[in-house]
Amino acid sequence: MSYRFFHRRVFRPDHSTWVLPVLASCFLLGIVIGHIFAGFESVCQSRILQNYISSFWLLLQNGQVEAASIGYTFFSYCKYSILVFLIGFTVIGCGIVPAITFYQGFALSFAVSVMMYSSENGFFLAAALFGIRCLFVLPCYFVVAHDSLGYSIYLRNRKLHKQQSSVKKKHTILHFIICVVILFAGAFFEHMFLIKIIYAIIQE
Q: Which residue among 19, 131, 154, 176 is least enclosed by CB atoms within 10 Å?
C-alpha cells in the first residue's frame, strides 16, 4: 500500500461518510426545537394562530377546501431541493445547506405539533396533510442536500488547495433530475387525492 493511498484513506477520509449524519442531526435538532416552541403557551394561545386554525377547520367542515393547483403543489414539493441544489454550487453551501435542513425540521415539527394541539383529530389530520408529502419530499431532499453539501465542501477544499472530494458534478445533477421526477409524481398524487383523504378523516 502506497503512502499516498494510506495517507488519504486513513488520515483524510472522504467527507461523504459524515455529510449525511450531519444533515440528519440538523434536521432532528430542528424537529425537537420546533416541537418545544409549539408547546409554549404564548404560541399556542396566540390569537392570530388560533383564528387561522379555527378558520381552516370551519372551511374543512363546510367542504370549502379545494386542492391546490398542481403547479403550486409541485413548487411546494421542490422548493427546498431546488434551493440547496443551487447553493451547492457555491462555497457558502457549506453553512447554508445545514441551516436549511434545520429549518425544514423546525417548520415541519412546529406545524404538526400545532395541528395536533388544535383538535382531537389533529393527529390524523396532520398525518394526512404532511405524511404523504414527507414520504416523497424528505428522501429526495436528503439525496439532493447530501450531494450539494458534498460538492460545496469540494469547492471549498479546492479553493484552499486541500484534498479533493469524490463527489462528481454530473452525479449531483443526475440525482437532482431523478428527484424532481419523483417529486412531481408525489405532487400529482397529493393534488388528486389529499383532499379526499382529509374529508374521509373528518367524516369519521
A: 131
Report which of 171, 126, 164, 125 is spatially closest to residue 147, judged by C-alpha positions: 171
Burial of 31 from C-beta contacts in 10 A (0-12 / 13-18 / 19+): buried
Distances in Å between the alpha carbon of 14 and those of 9, 10, 35, 91? 8, 10, 34, 18
The three three-digit cell numbers of residue 39, written as one number: 408547546
- Name the residue with cell 409554549: 40
pTM: 0.82
Across the chain, how many H-helices and E-strands are there?
Answer: 9, 0
Q: Taken in order 184, 190, 143, 149, is the CA torsion positive or negative?
A: positive
What count of residues does the chain have?
Answer: 204
pLDDT in tens, 76-111: 999 999 999 999 999 999 999 999 999 999 999 998
